Amino acid sequence: MKLSLNWIGQFVDIDKRKAEELAQRVSVSLTEVEKIENFRGVDVVMEIENKALTHRPDCFSHIGIAREIACIERLNFKNPLEKLNKKKLTFPKKTLPLQVTLKEDNLCKRYTAVILKDIHINPSPLWLQERLLACGVKPINNVVDVTNFVMLELGQPLHAFDYEKIKEKGNTREIIVRLARRNERITTLDGIQRELKKDMIVIADLEKAIGIAGIMGGANTEISEDTKTIVIESANFNEYSIRRTGKITGLHTEATLRFEKGQDPNLTYPAIVYVIQLLEKYAKAKLVSSIIDIYPQKTKQKSVVINTQKITRRIGTEIKDTEIKKILKRLEFEIVEEKDDQLKLAVPSFRNDIEIEEDFVEEIARIYGYDKITPQLPTRAINPVTEDLERKNSNNILSILSFLGLHEIYSYSFVSEYLYRKAQLDHQKMLTIKNPISPELRYVRDSIIPSVLEKAEVNCRNFEEFGIFEIGKEIHSLSLKKLPEEKKKISGIYYSKNQNETFYKVKGIVETLLNHLDITNYQFVLQENPQPFLDPNKSAQIKLLIYNTTGNLYKSKVQMAKEKPTEIILGYLGNLNKEVRNNFSMNGCATVFDLDFESLLVNIPEKNRYHPLSRYPSLFEDLSFIVSGNLPVETLRQKIDEVDEQISNVTLKERPFYSVKFGNNKKSVTFTIEYRNSKKTLNNTETQFIRHKIIQTLKKEYQAQIRE
Amino acid sequence: MKNEIDNIYNQAISVIEKITNGEALEALRVEYMGRKQGKLTLLMKNIPDLSIAEKREIGPLINKVKNALTIAFDKKEKTLGQITNSENSFFDITLPGEKFNIGTLHPITQVRLQVEKIFQKMGFEILNPNEIDDDYHVFTSLNLPPQHPARDMWDTFWTENDLIPITHTSSMQNRAMKEKTPPFGVIVPGRCFRHEATDAHHEHTFYQVEGLYIGENINLSHLIGTILTFLQEYFQKELRYKIQPSYFPFVEPGLEFLVSCVMCDGKGEKDKIPCSTCGHSGWLELIPCGLTHPKVIEMAGLDPKKYSGFAWGMGLDRLVMLKYGIEDIRHFHAGDLRFLKQF
Ligand SMILES: [Zn+2]
Questions:
Q1: In terms of CATH architecture, what is B107-340?
Q2: What residues have CB less than 8 Å from A124, skipping those under 6 apart?
Q3: Do domains A99-294 and A612-708 have the same CATH topology?
Q4: How many A from CA of B177 to the centre of ligand 1?
């Protein structure tokens, strides 16, 4: 909002030359001054931010700001309202008829109107035009300019109708404030025809709407050059209704700006008196009615009891009662009663924002000065802070993934149908946004994968090989009545243009992550229903097996193998199928993974036990087998592991390989076997015996041939 | 001609055996197999003049010899090489080390972790907000009942079932007060949304850290002290601060916490060039804050006569942009590794 310092200077004795210093004080005590500008060498314009004044309708006027400045600067405030309220007007004997009817008095708190005749429509005097221009308002003619001028000075929006254009019936004319009728339309002053909604307040005559209340007048009663007789409207409308109408029509006029904050109903009278005065002088207008003033329910005087001790305690610094009282007086809060630290304050009608004692913390503190408060930290018992294990573990996950070479990305929670289609996913279960910015942001994602693929596509242009991941939320709308389920996921992709297989890279990343988190009992199994974007033959579900460890902590492998563990699905990984790769312009191989964050977190065990080091040495031996190409290596490895208690570890020594030497579709698999007995040193005969058992078992179960 | 070829071969083989250094070997290779004047090369140049029968015989023979000599030279080079390396081993410490590809965390994650750490050290707990929440938690419980004019201050997305992709992580204030026993301090980092078209300076998806402290006799000095302590810890320098009135219905008073610009140290310019970070003003408007409104405390089931508190919010995006001088906010969600690999 732009303010003229000349104008403010009429009410408070400020020094225009020290505008910068004034601006700094206004910034810390009221609202930020955004700009100080010289206006044509005759005035200084101060532009202030409106946001901090959202609750201060009184500050949308020069007198409101002048009152504040007087308080901040400890200067005298010359209030023009007093004079206007007391002004004696002489009313003519012969008047023109006008009846005002409020159909809905809760929508219109007060309606004040007057009729003026013999109007000479002319340009306004230069000084008045200058005031308007300084505030960024374009001068039009004396009638319009005067209504704008009074609004800028006092904060009361006004409107002028052409009296002759108001429907006459039975020798009288009537202004009715009512709700819009079904299918009612009006062409507003900006020339646009608008359809009215049924909860909009309109100003009407007996036959038609002549204005949208508090927003804009109608073209049908507009002042023209030939206008001789006008009706001035100075009214007060319900702020909620005005706000709603402003939003629906998209009309944010100067009037709306003030009305939607809730103007002081006591302003309508002095404002209309001021308009009469100015139009008598500058448009040769003559009063031709008394002041019609419909005010069904006078606003009550509000009062708030405050405790000055409590106020200073909340501010956190000592302020003397005399100082507090001085500030209150300057802000026009009247002390009605006083008892010890208790003050009963009468709230002026223009301060509709003041309701409770806490509101005075701000009033006192801002004028006293926030800069006078000494910063302090709260004190409390030094109880140890509970360690946030979830944070610790999730930070751990982040650093492991990045150390394994993946780059973290962020992508939007909102996705498009098109993106889902590219990823061969169904978009229909997703929650939709009613008011999206664009169709690309219409759905709330229930999978992170499509966004990850989209980001991979971006990077394929610049990089031949990379891995990215995102920790984000899947939103699953289970029922429209409830909050959706939010599932945190770790989703990522590894892409390589030149490597022909990236599956094992990603599997390695997942395994390393799990191992590092001390999650050990996991399994990769072929997915029965792989996600539609995956190659069904190259996708695996990641399962966590939870053994019941109550009772015996040192269960033997053989015992464990018999027990049926609880299975938890941690997620999956798999290669993108060819179509999806094409959809996202990927030329090489790409493997995605998707892990459930919560399942991971809750299953991270607390390491609280170690395996005693064996006092007897282990013996190591490599064994190679030739088996069918279709036999999963893990099946073989587990089988070996179960052969004997004294086999303490079985690991794959090298990648299996195929050769015609072994026969059709046969591969060679080599394991390193560790033999150990915790009670004695094993000798060769004993290991030979176990080895024989292994060879026999594999031969029997899988027709495996030992390779010498 | 055939004899000549045989001679060249025998000669070469016997000389190769006697060679003891690499330069001599290379000279010999040029002498026999050099592309212009090599003995074998010169012989090959004669081939076009031969009869067809001779061509059939000599051509393959020369090739055979050529291959044999190449192998001989290579073999000798290898043996010589091994001798050289082991005898005169120069250990080149300037060679690059083995390459490990290490990933990166998103800059907003990095700054979030930093902020969390500071507040954890100050005894604050961390809460996670919902990404989609209801009207009660996003607005009503924060003294913003339906139809409250100040709701316009937030540009809100709505889902088909009238839920809200959260406009601020203040959505956890009510829950925090219901769950915790004062005195307590929490921070809530999270992803927020505003209905706003995206350009270099605007994003519909952004990241906020909300803070809330509730206790007995909490006042403005505590609010100022806490925020100032955090900011000085974060920027690792002494900062001047300034407080301006603002308005948010869930605090009373509503304030804006400004600090001296960290780029120009509050001077408004650096090396006589106006500072663009603070728009020449020397101040950064960083943290909207205030004392928790008694209605907000009451709605969470606590007694506002007994308890008071303060709350603030700050943008992680802003902190990251300030730290690295990032000019375009769109980089954060572009997923472009050329950007992300720098952090
Ligand atoms: Zn600066």
A1: 2-Layer Sandwich (3.30)
A2: A132, A139, A141, A142, A145, A146, A149, A282
A3: no
A4: 38
Contact B132 A484 (CB under 8 A): yes
ipTM: 0.89
Tell me what the mean pLDDT of segment B156-165 comes to.
95
Q: Does A332 touch chain B (CB under 8 A)?
A: no
Fold of A302-368: Phenylalanyl-tRNA Synthetase; Chain B, domain 1 (3.30.56)
Q: Does B291 touch chain A (CB under 8 A)?
A: yes
Cα A503 from chain centroid (whole Å): 39
CB B172 within 8 A of CB B210: yes
Distance in Å, CA B235 to ligand 1 centroid: 14
Q: Does A554 have pLDDT greater than 90?
A: no
Instruction: Name residues 93-132 of chain B within 8 A of A (Cβ).
Output: 100-106, 108-109, 113, 116, 120, 123, 125-126, 130-132
How big, in percent rounded to 5, are the helix, strand and coil portions of chain B?
Answer: 45, 20, 35
Q: Which one of the listed residues B168, B175, B293, B331 is annotated catalytic? A: B168
Q: Nearest Cβ partner of B131 from A315, A413, A477?
A: A413
Distance CA A654, CA B279 (A): 62
DSSP three-state, residue A708: coil
B243/A371 touch (CB, cutoff 8 Å), yes or no: yes
Domain limits, chain A: 2-78, 99-294, 302-368, 387-608, 612-708
CATH of domain A2-78: 3.30.56.10
Residue range A229-238, pLDDT digits in tens: 999 999 999 9
- pLDDT tens, A585-640? 999 999 999 999 999 998 988 777 787 888 899 999 999 999 999 999 999 999 99
Can you tell me the distance from the alpha carbon of A137 to that of B222, in angstroms, rounded to the nearest whole number? 44
Evaluate whether B284 touches B258 at the Cβ level (below 8 Å).
yes
CATH number of A612-708: 3.30.70.380
Domain boundaries, chain B: 2-88, 107-340
Interface test with B, best of A72, A352, A362, A470 (most B CBs within 10 A): A362
Look up B232 and say whether it is catalytic.
Answer: no
At the fourth CATH level, which superfamily is domain A99-294? Phenylalanyl-trna Synthetase, Chain B, domain 3 (3.50.40.10)
Fold of A387-608: BirA Bifunctional Protein; domain 2 (3.30.930)
Could you give the CA distance from residue A372 to residue B220 in angstroms, rounded to a whole number? 11
Please state, in angstroms and rounded to a whole number, the distance separating the CA atoms of residues B268 and B283.
8
